[in-house]
Amino acid sequence: MISVLIADDEQPAIDELAFLLGQDPRIGVIHQASSGAEAIRLLTREPVDAAFLDIHMPGLTGFDLARALARFEHRPVLVFVTADEEGALEAFDLAAVDYLLKPVRAERLRRSVARIVEALKAGSTSTAASEAAEPEVIAVTLGGTTRMIRRDEVRYVQAQGDYARLHTEEASYLVRVPMADLERQWADAGFVRVHRSYLVALGHVSRVRLGTDHPSVTVGGAELPVSRRLLPALRDRLERAILRARP
């Protein structure tokens, strides 16, 4: 049985989520907090396995609370619950296992609980797993000189015919690898195809604009287009916030 905390400044939202969680046989004790400060006080007395955090709370926001919980000896598995899809990227950085959009649907919530179960079985959050992994190293050539760069330095990849150009903070490098091959090989490392010409590292995305006539993502100062065909897959990736990026 999984013990959980629901932190939200709106009591109706707490009541609705608590009701849905109560229908899941995997869920045990359900604690409630109406603010980030109250949540911290509760968790210092009684740790829980998982925390469902509203993002937009006065005082300590859900993100502030998540950062504070990172210092706890017993850190709960995190799920963010919000009406704002734009926060998914920050949730990614904070190692949440899921990102739920309000109003929460019962079937969608069951999938979140399944992810919590997986994280608890693994005995660590996906961030810990990410930090333990050795980053892949790629040989690139620039100005006749071959050097090695880490895959986690690559912010986005641009298709150039049968080649691909890797963009890092310092420079860009042309490699003799088709974009399709990199898309397949790097999917588990947090790279997502957003356009026929672009593959982006979600961990380097600083801004998303998906609800406009010209959807885009911003990576390292470059605003890249998101194609209509790939938009649903990107939305799903951000919503699920798998958060298992490996460098």
TrEMBL record:
Residues in HTH LytTR-type domain copies: 138-240
Record bears the keyword Thylakoid: no
SMART domains noted in UniProt: LytTR, REC
GO MF annotation terms: DNA binding
Source domain of life: Bacteria
Keyword Phosphoprotein attached: yes
Keywords from the UniProt entry: DNA-binding, Phosphoprotein
Ranges of residues in domain Response regulatory: 3-117
4-aspartylphosphate: residues bearing it: 54
PANTHER family attached to this UniProt entry: STAGE 0 SPORULATION PROTEIN A HOMOLOG (PTHR37299:SF1), TRANSCRIPTIONAL REGULATOR-RELATED (PTHR37299)
UniProt protein name: LytTR family DNA-binding domain-containing protein
Organism this protein belongs to: Agromyces humatus
